[in-house]
Amino acid sequence: MPAPRKINEKKKARGTPPTLFARLNARVSLQAQADGSMAAHFDDYSEPLGKFSAVAVERAQQLPTGLPLSAAAPDGDAVERDIERLIRQLARRGLLEYRLGGARADDDLVVIEPQLPDYWPRTPKLTDATTIVLSRFAYMRRRGAEMVLESPRAGALFRIRDAGIAALLTALATPHKISQIRRQDRYRGPALLALLLDCHILVEADAADRDTLRQAEGDDGLVLWDFHDLLFHTRSTEGRQANPLGGLYPHTGLIAPLPAIRPAWPGKTIKLPDSDRIASALERLLHDRHSTRDFDDRKPITLAELAAFLNNVARVRAKWSSPLEFADDGPDIEYTSRPYPAAGSAYELELYLAVGNCDGLTPGLYHYDADAHALVAIDVRPQHLEAMMQSAVFAMDASSRPQILITIAARFGRISWKYSAIAYALILKDVGALTQTLYLAATDLGLGGCAIGTTNIDLFAKMTGLDFHVEGPVGQFALGRGIAPSAPA
After folding, report:
1. Could you report the per-residue pLDDT of 416-447, keeping only the tens digit for each?
2. DSSP tag of 14
3. Would you list the domain boundaries of the chain?
């Protein structure tokens, strides 16, 4: 009797190809009105979705368990177009997940969680001659009671529901042709491979040359990244992940907060004398420095003040080049000197200014050319600029937009070309040094500033057209004339 069971399991694995379904997140419900209006309800919110045909409303009742994506097509009949519009509306709001599996709601191979608001599952065509390999950025880990497959390059993560997939991924540590994979018992059909390829969890490669797999990942910008650095960059910023982020106090009730001052060591204490000399200008700046979150729009920062500020914090002071260390035939490397310290004099950081209210400067996005000491306008969509400003307002818990929002971006390859394993850590150290410089320069000019703890790397990429792994945000700083404290009555 055991033998027929094995045969049946093998037939099941190789039987009907799995179907891709769109499914509502567990916390979301849909409500329809008699006129065809629909709304999504979640976390005590109600989000209107528009009006839809009676047939589309009826089919939408399948969304809690899964509606086949084949029923939604932008070039299909009127009902399919209506369903596609509904699913897109839900997807843009982050209210959907997708499942690949059988008709039963619990018969899943994988469940796909979008990490980008505009993620849409695609299944590029694969031929038997296509060679694929697991990306060096892909990883699998336990999350709660589930195994999830992720990549900092991916627009979605995959919750693994079939043990055979893990075995398949292990085999794909080396390049395989699709024709080879199709003959394996753990093969689950082309749709899964295509979805993973679309998310860059699998990549196409040359089976004959395994020494160039790093180059097969993509452009030169990706070649320069170490796995842990790219993962840290995408998972500690907004834009390419859907995890909770920010000051959420996640350990309240589990672990007591640490005291503000570390308990004293038990050794001998040597009391240091207080200084009685007159404070220097630097001491006064350090003492006066504080974060300013609200700005006086009746008295905006001026272009002259902004010019002085940028000159003091980031302008190039000197340029030179020198040959590569430890090599006689290496290239000459260019260096600069600027007002703040930087690892290896790489000075990989660039300043982008979202100007909201500056006397003498048109609102918009600008790049600061630190060599020419000039601002270069960048054409961006107004809604993107507004989204960047509003995100800063929310992060600072401010009452209004900053007069100028400075995005600190890094040209990652400038530092990762030299440093192995520590490149991103060095970038963040440089951001800290620059941020303190921004604070002191603002204080010296009588301006207000505030460092902001998170940035949206996907929004910046859309605004600038730069790939997120080539040049992207690593910090932000709000600048302007702070609101003067009210005089006592």
Report:
1. 999 999 999 999 999 999 999 999 999 999 99
2. H
3. 12-106, 118-218, 281-480
